[in-house]
Amino acid sequence: MKVAFCDFTVLFRSSLQSIAGKDADPLRFLSAVIKSDVVQYYLFHTSSNWAIERDKSLFYELLSLPFFLPEDAADPKVTQDIISAVAEKIKGFEKCIKTASWFGEEQKRKEEAERIRRDIEPLIREYYNIDKYEAMLIEDTLRLAKESFHPRQSTPNVPTLKQPRDPECKIYAQTLCEMLNNFGRGSQFKVKGDIIQGQPYSIIHVAMTDRTCRTVPVSTADKKLAQIFNRMKTLLQHKQGRFVFCQNLKVFDGDDLFVLKPMQMRFWSRTAALNDADEIASAILDSRELK
Description:
Elements: H1 24-34, H2 37-46, H3 59-62, H4 76-98, H5 106-127, H6 132-148, H7 166-183, E1 191-196, E2 201-208, E3 218-219, H8 222-236, E4 237-240, E5 243-246, E6 250-253, E7 256-262, H9 270-290
Parallel strand pairs: 1-3
Antiparallel strand pairs: 1-2, 2-7, 4-5, 6-7
Helix pairs in contact: 1-4, 2-6, 4-5, 7-9
């Protein structure tokens, strides 16, 4: 999506949609919002074409964006200050592209535009009050889902299908345990996690603890992995005729929880960790209600 703010008359030879107004700074801010990661995330999940056919959003979909002015915000002064700060950064860029030294230096202009966009992104997230968990969803969508939709046979290294590295596995486990500990805040309930790595599956072992652990050990103990697989086999499999079905891939065994994960990045993202934490917390609550 190409988005630009212009403070002069524009003549365009192809189709163009425009939003006009008398106050320039809110329009500068709006152009930055439309190009932001926050809105790219929103459009990716709501547009009728993107992620299904082409990376394209229709104008009526753009007009449905949740955009509010400072007077409608919980703290008008803070939001007005954000608009002013973003507008000043864009004005600085406008001055740069008007200087003669920028003409013919397309790569330099693109690099500067991307740098300013990255500087503006935290301000836009603050404007929309995006918390760190919502930021995880945004970043995973743009880094993994957006870059993986409509792959071709010749597409190398589809992000969602690649094998996760140890740091990515640790981030998943840390996010999962952090969310579970947040659910249990105010109680003695704390968990820690470790990873038993294998191919094509690995196992996250989540156990009760009396203190919060920041590190996530990663091991490749084949014998231990085989023992857990055997234990899970008796708990998971349900035979119906000639077919054997796995009922679930999250198994509670006393104070231990074993989560079986295929070694593909889509199962090890922070979004997957948040979803798994919700499912695990729901299962714990359901089990307490049955007692």
